[in-house]
What we know:
Elements: H1 2-20, E1 49-56, E2 61-66, E3 75-79, E4 82-89, E5 101-105, E6 113-116, E7 125-128, E8 134-139, E9 142-148, E10 156-163, E11 167-174, E12 185-191, E13 197-203, E14 211-218, E15 226-229, E16 235-240, E17 244-249, E18 260-261, E19 270-271, E20 277-279, E21 283-284, E22 290-293, E23 304-310, E24 319-325, E25 338-339, E26 349-356, E27 362-368, E28 380-386, E29 394-397, H2 405-408, E30 410-413, E31 416-418, E32 424-427, E33 431-436, E34 444-446, E35 451-452, E36 455-456, E37 473-474, E38 477-478
Antiparallel strand pairs: 1-2, 2-34, 3-4, 4-5, 5-6, 7-8, 8-9, 9-10, 11-12, 12-13, 13-14, 15-16, 16-17, 17-18, 19-20, 20-21, 22-23, 23-24, 24-25, 26-27, 27-28, 28-29, 30-31, 32-33, 33-34, 35-38, 36-37
Amino acid sequence: xxxxxxxxxxxxxxxxxxxxxxxxxxxxxxxxxxxxxxxxxxxxxxxxxxxxxxxxxxxxxxxxxxxxxxxxxxxxxxxxxxxxxxxxxxxxxxxxxxxxxxxxxxxxxxxxxxxxxxxxxxxxxxxxxxxxxxxxxxxxxxxxxxxxxxxxxxxxxxxxxxxxxxxxxxxxxxxxxxxxxxxxxxxxxxxxxxxxxxxxxxxxxxxxxxxxxxxxxxxxxxxxxxxxxxxxxxxxxxxxxxxxxxxxxxxxxxxxxxxxxxxxxxxxxxxxxxxxxxxxxxxxxxxxxxxxxxxxxxxxxxxxxxxxxxxxxxxxxxxxxxxxxxxxxxxxxxxxxxxxxxxxxxxxxxxxxxxxxxxxxxxxxxxxxxxxxxxxxxxxxxxxxxxxxxxxxxxxxxxxxxxxxxxxxxxxxxxxxxxxxxxxxxxxxxxxxxxxxxxxxxxxxxxxxxxxxxxxxxxxxxxxxxxxxxxxxxxxxxxxxxxxxxxxxxxxxxxxxxx
Length: 499
């Protein structure tokens, strides 16, 4: 009887896991572990930053920050002491074909400036501490750390956190709380010298020195860790291994609790002849999680959100989903993930990120092909916002020009092309997505969230004396925009006065 009871419990557990899973049972899988290193193309011309070109196509404006093609993998961070101060870059930060640049803005993206840093091997990721210091981690025969104490204007090379030629896909975060672990800085990366392990390091002195905490776990094909810090200095470390795995530290990253499954999901796309998960025309993709914590003063302060792309059961090859934890990462809504993209197509949605602003609004961004149905090739940057703690999301289009991924993809090897492995979004009062690919380029773009647009029923009109013409205007919004919009009008040439 005891043996039968054990068997029944095992079968019940297996059924529960299967019913909660977003793993497509028909998707081919692989046990191969592989790095997401980037192989540089053979020559983009060096270029200055700071174009600040306003791209007005349709109702909304986008802002082009660069002048020449970059190398994807865009990231952005905001200063907690100055919500109009952002720093950003992409993989051109390597300096492969010119000076390695970082750009920064101190007026909320109205204008951007650039500054140079030392050459490296890419994978740029940013964070900021409570003092307003920015940190930038890059690959450089290991993980190198740079620091800016003047809003991104200049950067100091602090040397390598770790020296390891087998390092890949690092992530960093800093404690912005006023608690006992204030300004601790945390870094996790994938160590292929130890079987694609997630290795965690921490600094308790503003990045001056670092200590190795331990190997937190492994993942296949590439765990791609992410880190976030919540109220009380709780550290959340997430990575991919059959879904999102999370471990929590309550002592400033010194020790971590046992891992918890925040979601059960497969990698988006399908496996091609090179053994990689791909979408579109052999462009590599991943199911790496992206997490963010609500640090607002609202009732949802401390909620953690886990956003990811997956190949769900059925004909859709890639969708965006969100799970959340409302109890400090102890339990997750892995059994009821929320689909973030609201399209009714089977087209691809992938390459996502998430952030939470000071009003507790959850912002997500991703690439989306819903407007090329059934072609499923032309792609736009989409976003979504949740004002109810991740239970529902309102979708909107961010980019005002689409692009063809097949036209801008970067060759890596046979059946293996690259458009980056992540992109970024950040904000406190205003939120700024930072992305590439628009208008069949690898330029860097941004936009304001929330924002309002303006469009007219007629672009030009004429009127005869004594007659009437009506031109209708509309104000679409991206996100829950609230504010006063003031309009001015002029008529040219001025009509003759009748006496």
